[in-house]
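To whoever is on call:

I kicked off a structure prediction for a single chain this morning and the downstream step that reads the tokens threw a length-mismatch warning. I double-checked the sequence; it's 130 residues and nothing unusual in it as far as I can see. Pasting both halves so you can look.
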Amino acid sequence: MVKGYLDVSVAPFLGFVARLTGLLVPYAGTGIPTVVEFSSDASGALIFDRTLSFPNKGVVHFTSRMEWVTGNELIEVMRFGIGWRLAYDWTGEKMTLSHKGYVWRVAGLTIPLPLSWLLGKGYAEESPFV
């Protein structure tokens, strides 16, 4: 388990969709207290169970699983089998997660979804506190 603070950005339309579906974190904010619990399953996927405590909006639980694809590429699979394909890079100071497209995981298949024009492109940076 790790505890820290997240700065979360989400476009208004995507926040609306997230509130309806529970697919993503629906709110934006700075310095959001966050707890992440990690586990894995028999496939080797890394499971993230996140709890974000938004002031005036309450607690949001968001669970996803990271599955390795090849090289430095992963798919983060969320609710309903919707996933974000990403590449990760370590600069020596921070990790960046860069958008490689959206997918739908169904019946053992990974189907590309042309949703970037509607949902935008995901991007994340993670820096350790020393």
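Update from on-call: the warning came from a stale cache, not from the record. Cleared it. Sanity check on the structure: Helices lie at 12-21, 116-119.
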